[in-house]
Amino acid sequence: xxxxxxxxxxxxxxxxxxxxxxxxxxxxxxxxxxxxxxxxxxxxxxxxxxxxxxxxxxxxxxxxxxxxxxxxxxxxxxxxxxxxxxxxxxxxxxxxxxxxxxxxxxxxxxxxxxxxxxxxxxxxxxxxxxxxxxxxxxxxxxxxxxxxxxxxxxxxxxxxxxxxxxxxxxxxxxxxxxxxxxxxxxxxxxxxxxxxxxxxxxxxxxxxxxxxxxxxxxxxxxxxxxxxxxxxxxxxxxxxxxxxxxxxxxxxxxxxxxx
Length: 259
Hints:
9 helices
């Protein structure tokens, strides 16, 4: 029993050290990525296209629907308690600081995180990684770094896009259900929106992008020989992304409210 526990602990420490080494190499390769000609720049462009551009429709729909629901509920329920002024602080809190970054991250995990881990896993099984090395191409520079940059940048821009439609785009939907004066809406919205809200939202989206991209590439490269390992690693990548995103969200929120 004690021997088994000891071996598990040693394997765990080795795994953590390997993960730290992988993350360090990706960060180091990222610094030199834009110097000179890089074959991975095309991969970066395609990653931004897949992660960012192709997700715009669903992001806009969710953001507008969520913003409209908050406004409708606020103008309907809060006046009953004499708290109508809380509508906009609640809208900003939910859209900008909390659900905006988190929902964008969950969508990217479901789309890009799974796709990246699956693609890299199949590359390992089909010996494409060995072919890259034989051709003098660093797999990390060609496969991991473009996805790291692409997912992180895309998530940051998608979060801004989500905030725009959640805070401003939702106004147009509410006009069909619960009309609100435009001047009153935008004046109160800007008066309650603080730089701290924007900073918190930006930090979360950047952190989530880093977590998702590193988790997906890390577990993709952990596939060894069999194709049956691919779905297993995809599940681990998704689970790790969800857990670490939630933990980081809690930490940033805690710092925000205890400063």
